[in-house]
């Protein structure tokens, strides 16, 4: 079953064309890494999927429904790029931030009930941050904050996760743990994942498919196909193939 169908989509900011001619389907259970240079339209694509930006051409179907009419938003969890600066002195605890994810599925009056705190505990458990529950978000490292926002996106137990990976410096071990958690959510909990990756060379370690954007869709397919394509050289340069594709095969090959 297709979770998302993107049909010949263009998105403009006024006269600026950010994306055009994008056509791709994402099936339930897929794990898609979205790569592309800065300004290539990756975040714009997410915003269009989430109906935060109108498409100027084409259509996006979510679970078979045009995104303009779609209302089942609790099926979709979104983790935006988070800047640590944003939280300087912000007085909310981790538990409160995660619980705030419950509000997105509610209509007025937007209240959180005691029995819903079990959902908050479950989401914190999935990303292993229960021990941080009473800490202030502003006191946490970038990697810990990343997990808090992942938990907030998971609190309604969505079927589809959209993750805009932060560019902020996160050490390799923290980053690796984050990828492992997301991989488990995909493989063990059956969640469909779309992740904007700023390190395309890592993408083959966890994603089953790769979408390479540069205002248009340059490549969409498995990482192994990408490795033997001319687009690989275009993105990483002529000497990168052995380093990126030789060292570690894609998840698809390991399965
Ligand atoms: P990426 O996520 O790949 O770095 P974006 O989707 O953020 O790229 O941006 C795609 C293009 O759209 C860029 O040229 C960017 O400058 C432009 N853009 C993004 N947001 C806005 C905005 N709010 N107003 C005008 N142009 C924008």
Write a structural description.
- This protein has 255 residues and is α/β, with parallel strands linked by helices.
- It has a single domain, classed as 3-Layer(aba) Sandwich (Rossmann fold), CATH 3.40.50.
- The protein has 10 helices and 10 strands.
- The chain has helices at residues 42-49, 94-100, 117-126, 142-154, 172-187, 200-203, 223-227, 230-236, 240-246, 251-254; strands spanning 2-13, 16-27, 31-35, 57-62, 65-66, 76-79, 160-164, 192-196, 209-214, 216-222.
- The strands form 2 sheets. A 6-stranded mixed β-sheet has the order 6-7-8-3-9-10, sandwiched between helices.
- A hairpin with a 1-residue loop joins strand 9 and strand 10 (216-222).
- Helix 2 packs parallel to helix 4 (142-154) and helix 3 crosses helix 4 (142-154).
- The longest helix has 16 residues, at 172-187.
- It is globular, with a radius of gyration of 18 Å.
- The relative contact order is 0.17.
- The model is unreliable at 248-255 (pLDDT under 50).
- Bound molecules: adenosine-5'-diphosphate (ADP).
